[in-house]
UniProtKB/TrEMBL annotation:
It is found in: Secreted, Extracellular space, Extracellular matrix. Its main location: secreted. The lineage of its organism: Eukaryota, Metazoa, Chordata, Craniata, Vertebrata. Residues 45-79 form the LRRNT domain. SUPFAM superfamilies: L domain-like (SSF52058). It comes from Pogona vitticeps (central bearded dragon). Residues 1-18 form the signal peptide. This is Lumican. Pfam families: LRR_8 (PF13855), LRRNT (PF01462).
Length: 349
């Protein structure tokens, strides 16, 4: 067992590469870029101001062109990139020629809800990915087609959501809503029925409580950088597959976490760093990565990790961060080494 600093923890899911670090906290947006010289000139059916590489003729790149409106999109295009322009609105007939569109990437524009007309997205019956990060949205866009599996609306001004926004989206797997202005009242019940949802990021919003009505099959759930003060005792009881839970940079205290609220048998990683905890919340023996740095913890009860210690009864924790608390190596009880026998790293400083 080494008492040193925890290295970065990486994981890959659903084609999305997520890097978990503390500064910066989130990875940069995925790079869908291309090199025109590599693929050759645009094909004949391409919009003249855009590029449709010969190697990928069903993809049309219209990035960094200072466009104020959408170009004419020819039929046959399945992957449309319109990043880093000045587009403010989308007319309802904008995609009538491209009903086969599968990816629509609109990051870094000036889009507003009032200028996105009618059912423009719902008409795209094959749409799988819709990215509208870094725009001027104030509400979650909709209606959306039930083929959608990846929705990204980060870095907007979203504070509202229609209760039926996600109704019928049986294929929706990933939702990114971080860096908005959402509250728990706005979100409660909005995600109901999303039985395929595995990844939900609500970090950097205005949550003071955990939203109700989240789907039970979710795998990754992120609430970092909100104003959450407590976790109801039964909140996570119905979750069947939750493995990654982040609640760092909130306002959690000991009284806000009832005894077994975080004793989740499926959980692999739990982040409670940068809160106001004085003791270590009880977790399940199967937890592997536990982040508690920058709290006010001044005691180390082994019972937080192990109900009993024996030949087959011990914690699976491998990485434990306790740095920037009120603990020293002298505060660690001797029985810790039997309980945390699989720990590779425990960070105290």
């Amino acid at each position: 067992m080494h008492l040193n600093t925890l290295p970065l923890f990486f994981f890959l899911i659903s084609g999305i590469f997520c890097q978990y670090d503390y500064d910066p906290y989130y990875p940069s947006e995925p790079d869908y870029g291309y090199a025109p010289s590599m693929y050759g000139p645009s094909t004949a059916v391409c919009a003249p101001e855009c590029n449709c590489p010969i190697t990928y003729p069903t993809a049309m790149y219209c990035d960094n062109l200072k466009l104020k409106s959408l170009p004419i999109v020819p039929s046959g295009i399945k992957y449309l990139y319109l990043r880093n322009n000045m587009i403010e609105g989308i007319e309802e007939n904008a995609f009538d020629n491209v009903t086969d569109l599968e990816w629509l990437i609109l990051d870094n524009n000036h889009l507003e809800n009032s200028k996105i007309k009618g059912r423009v997205f719902a008409k795209l019956k094959n749409l799988k990915k819709l990215h509208i990060n870094y725009n001027n949205l104030t509400e979650i866009v909709g209606p959306l087609p039930n083929t959608l599996d990846d929705l990204q609306l980060t870095h907007n001004k979203i504070s509202k959501a229609n209760p039926n926004t996600f109704e019928g989206l049986v294929n929706l797997t990933v939702i990114h809503l971080q860096h908005n202005a959402l509250s728990e009242d706005t979100l409660s019940g909005v995600f109901k029925g999303l039985n395929s949802l595995l990844y939900l990021d609500l970090s950097f919003n205005k949550l003071s409580k955990l939203p109700l009505g989240l789907p039970p099959n979710i795998l990754m759930l992120y609430f970092d950088n909100n104003q959450i003060t407590n976790i109801p005792a039964e909140y996570f009881k119905g979750f069947k597959a939750l493995q990654y839970l982040r609640l760092s940079h909130n306002k959690l205290t000991d009284s806000g976490i009832p005894g077994n609220a975080l004793n989740i048998s499926t959980l692999v990683e739990l982040d409670l760093s940068y809160n106001h905890l004085k003791s270590i919340p009880t977790v399940n023996e199967h937890l592997e990565n536990y982040y508690l740095q920058v709290n006010q913890i001044n005691q180390f009860p082994v019972s937080s990790f192990c109900k009993v210690v024996g030949v087959l009864a011990y914690s699976r924790v491998r990485h434990l961060r306790l740095d920037a608390n009120n603990l020293t190596r002298a505060d660690l009880p001797h029985e810790l080494y039997n309980c945390l026998r699989m720990a590779a790293e425990i960070s105290l400083e």
